[in-house]
Automatic annotation (TrEMBL):
This is ABC transporter ATP-binding protein. InterPro entries: AAA+_ATPase, ABC_AA/LPS_Transport, ABC_transporter-like_ATP-bd, BCA_ABC_TP_C, P-loop_NTPase. GO terms for cellular component: plasma membrane. The keyword Hydrolase does not apply. It comes from Microvirga brassicacearum. GO terms for molecular function: ATP binding; ATP hydrolysis activity. Residues 9-250 form the ABC transporter domain.
Length: 252
C-alpha cells in the first residue's frame, strides 16, 4: 500500500480488543500533513485507545498503521517516538522541582543524546540556552524561566508541557485534552498556542471543548463505540443527526 503524499498517517482496519470487547473496531483514518485533525466523541468512544495504538502503548489486535509511508504497526513505543510522533498527556508531565528553563533544557538534551548527563556543569550546556529562550517565548513563559515548575498555575504548567514537547521537534503532535481543567483565560491562551505551533507540523488532538474544535480543526473525525461515526468539517459533523444522537446519549 502506498501512502498519499499529503497524508502523514494512514490507518486501515485498526482494531483493538480487550478480553473480547472491541474498543476500536475496523477504523480507517487518514491524517493530512500539516493540518489540525480533531478526534471527538462521547465518553467511552475509543479516543484514548486510538491514541494508545498510534503511540504503541497498546499493540493492535488487527489492521495497520503507516507513518510517512512506512509500516509502524508492530514497532515499539521508543522507535515510534524517534520517528517524530510525540504525545502530550492530559496531566502535565514536567519536573516540578526544576525551574521552567531547566525543564525545557532537559527536553532539548534528549535528541542530542545528553538527556541524562546531569553531572555536567550548566555552562557546558549553554549552547542550548538560545533554543530554551525561543521555546519559552513561543509559549509565553520567557518571564517565568527561573521559577520552579511546581509553583506555576495549572494553565502555565500546560504551556510548559507544550514547550518541552516542542523541544523534541515532533513531526506529529498528539494532544490529549489540551484544554482540560483550564479556566476561560487559559483555554484561550492554549488555543492560540495550538494554532501557533501547528505551523510546519501536524496535530492530531482529542478535545471535548467543541468551540475550540470548531475554531482550530481542519478536519474532524467522530468516534462512537469504537467506530467512525462521521468525518468532515465542524459544520458538517455538528449537524449530522447520528453525531447529535451519540452526544445526547453518551456525554456526561
Amino acid at each position: 500500500m502506498t501512502i498519499a503524499a499529503d497524508n502523514i498517517i494512514e490507518v486501515r482496519g485498526l482494531t483493538k480488543r480487550f478480553h473480547g470487547f472491541a474498543a476500536i473496531s475496523n477504523v480507517d483514518l487518514d491524517v493530512r500533513r500539516q493540518s489540525i485533525h480533531a478526534l471527538i466523541g462521547p465518553n467511552g468512544a475509543g479516543k484514548t485507545t486510538f491514541f494508545n495504538l498510534i503511540t504503541k502503548v497498546h499493540q493492535p489486535s488487527g489492521g495497520s498503521i503507516r507513518f510517512n509511508g512506512e509500516d509502524i504497526t508492530n514497532e515499539d513505543p521508543a522507535r515510534v517516538a524517534r520517528r517524530g510522533i510525540v504525545r502530550s498527556f492530559q496531566i502535565s508531565a514536567i519536573f516540578p522541582r526544576m525551574t521552567v528553563a531547566e525543564n525545557v533544557r532537559i527536553a532539548l538534551q534528549r535528541p542530542k543524546g545528553t538527556s541524562f548527563h546531569f553531572w555536567r556543569s550548566e555552562s557546558s550546556l549553554s549552547v542550548l540556552e538560545d533554543r530554551v529562550d525561543e521555546l519559552l517565548a513561543a509559549v509565553g513563559l520567557e518571564h517565568m524561566r527561573d521559577q520552579t515548575a511546581a509553583g506555576l498555575p495549572y494553565g502555565r504548567k500546560r504551556a510548559l508541557e507544550f514547550a518541552t514537547t516542542l523541544a523534541v521537534e515532533p513531526e506529529l503532535l498528539l494532544l490529549d485534552e489540551p484544554t482540560s481543567g483550564l479556566g476561560t483565560e487559559d483555554v484561550e491562551r492554549i488555543a492560540a498556542l495550538i494554532r501557533s505551533v501547528s505551523a510546519n507540523r501536524t496535530i492530531l488532538m482529542v478535545e471535548h471543548n467543541l468551540s475550540i474544535v470548531a475554531r482550530l480543526a481542519d478536519k474532524i473525525t467522530v468516534l462512537a463505540r469504537g467506530k467512525i461515526l462521521a468525518e468532515g468539517t465542524y459544520a458538517e459533523v455538528s449537524t449530522d443527526p447520528r453525531v447529535i444522537e451519540a452526544y445526547i446519549g453518551g456525554e456526561e
